[in-house]
């Protein structure tokens, strides 16, 4: 009986060891678990190929590819951190890192990262993963928001077509969409099912900040003049000018594409990576082009939350995990990842690659915007996920639909929002 009990205990111990984050096998080989959120076929293939190439060249440090999902990553990571089962290498987005970093779940990479990597990625990108002067991830992919336009429609209308050198202002953009509308068609379709990120990041072009940090580090929400420009433009297009389709305000980006292809909307503001879906789904002969988003007092500046790679604090082999990151983000590999995700790399060397500067599919327009990308306003704000879900999302959705006015929007973002953020700053 005592022998059977001992065998059972050993079996349970081995099972738990197999579920833990990372480890060393009896033969001395290290195993690291890499959770990737790649979802497009080209991106998944690129990530898997790079893992295989690493494993072929590093027999003593094996990386296991684990498929994650953007839809559930925050809650999944929170559960895995609390349960001690987090992957060693974590793919996420920079605006999701603050609570994990402050909570002690992510490793401080400040002294572990190679100089090659830290010097190749601009300081503005490192700001998105820096909390209390410590680095908790590597920002490696980013995407500006752009206007995807029906090129034939724009040409026939005779409107001035914007370029990164001569973009539309927000006021001009509103007038253009009015000119393009009529007979049941709309100049623009705003997909604002998730309105917060788009609104905040585009508002940087108009000088908006929304989140203000005092000398003590406390963050408060103030909805000021620059923060009003983008919401007021969208509200006017949807409710006054009738130049924005009201039915797409509650839709996701992909939901607008059938109507775009059918000629219901002249333009759709989307993330740069949506170009892949357009290439795959557009009917034969459909002529489209990529335009820069409108500019305001801040020019073409807009906020981004880059995709990131972090290492779990519980990972027992942090140096080896960082060595894998260094391999994964070599310039030529960063280009492969960018092409697979149809996004822009953060690294300067990768961004200079000719494959990312061709006019085909609007790559050149995207790379022209790279220098104007800045950390998203909410990047280091603790409590942002709750503020976004419970306060900002419903308030913006009601404002854009015309259910509430600008003063009510301001009150809810500031008063209700500051109550939420205060709980995280005590």
From TrEMBL:
<dbReference type="InterPro" id="IPR050490">
    <property type="entry name" value="Bact_solute-bd_prot1"/>
</dbReference>
<feature type="region of interest" description="Disordered">
    <location>
        <begin position="232"/>
        <end position="253"/>
    </location>
</feature>
<dbReference type="InterPro" id="IPR006059">
    <property type="entry name" value="SBP"/>
</dbReference>
<feature type="compositionally biased region" description="Polar residues">
    <location>
        <begin position="236"/>
        <end position="249"/>
    </location>
</feature>
<keyword id="KW-0732">Signal</keyword>
<feature type="signal peptide">
    <location>
        <begin position="1"/>
        <end position="22"/>
    </location>
</feature>
<dbReference type="Pfam" id="PF01547">
    <property type="entry name" value="SBP_bac_1"/>
</dbReference>
<protein>
    <submittedName>
        <fullName>Sugar ABC transporter substrate-binding protein</fullName>
    </submittedName>
</protein>
